[in-house]
Amino acid sequence: MSDATGTNSILGDMRVLRHLLFHQVRGETHEERLESFYSGQARDYDSFRARMLHGRRELIAKVDLPPDGIWVDMGAGTGENVLLAGKRAESLREIHLVDLSSSLLAVASKRLNAAGIGTARIHLADATRFHAAAESVDLVSFSYSLTMIPDWFEAISVAERILKPGGRIAVADFYVSRKFTAEEHRQHRWLSRAFWTHWFAADNVFLSGDHAALLHRRFDVEVFEERLGKVPYLPLIRAPYYVLIGRKGRPPRPSMKCE
Ligand SMILES: C[S@@+](CC[C@H](N)C(=O)[O-])C[C@H]1O[C@@H](n2cnc3c(N)ncnc32)[C@H](O)[C@@H]1O
Q1: Residue 1: inside a domain, yes or no?
Q2: From the CB of 75, is ligand 1 less than 6 Å away?
Q3: Is residue 156 part of a domain?
Q4: Is the pTM of this model over 0.85?
Q5: Residue of the CA atom closest to atom 8 of ligand 1
Q6: Which of 16, 52, 221, 256 is deepest in the core (most CB within 10 A)?
Q7: Nearest-5° Cα angle at 85, 19 to 133
Q8: CATH number of domain containing 218
Q9: Number of domains in the chain
């Protein structure tokens, strides 16, 4: 079994696991902590995460990428989402990859150049401060990044602000349900909620039932699927994740005053 760099992927997995289990994340700022976490695993990131970050392929396959449109991928990492879009990405006018890890963005830059996707621009920037003209963007995506963005509610606000009316937000991520969920949503048991919350928090990944709840409030949700996915080297358990596509509604018309 070989990965894209030709080295044995098991060795790559071992490097990632060593990093995940024993490397102490350091840094004064969020950006420094992210770089401390990712710099030692950037080259092996894709092979390991391909077996862990489920739903990305399906998310990108399902979402509309309008010709001549603008796509902002928040917490884009190594650019996997754009590569998954393949030929469909070529018809877009602009693609923006936003991330705070320079190591992962360096991998993204190499991969996109190799794939000849020249429309993609890379931004070493915080998703909560990313600027695009209000109501100019057709698609904002977050794959497995909302759980790593401390001010995730601001990241969702930014997405809402920059999306055009009718534009789409596309999210895939790990989560745990709220203690009491609406009937139509999955309810996770206490043990599952406690285990996954603590397991991921060790790597500064913060699972919550509130992400999907806020997305339902802010967007007209067209796709919401709650699933369980395999985790490399943990054969007996499955991590909960969801895939969501929502549409930004048109702003409400000013109501007529009744006098
Ligand atoms: C688990 S990775 C997912 C990367 C990629 N979306 C994927 O599917 O492979 C989470 C990403 O979010 C980025 N991230 C975390 N906080 C961020 C922030 N405030 N602004 C931008 N990116 C952020 C991390 O650097 C990392 O690349």
Answers
A1: no
A2: yes
A3: yes
A4: yes
A5: 143
A6: 16
A7: 90
A8: 3.40.50.150
A9: 1
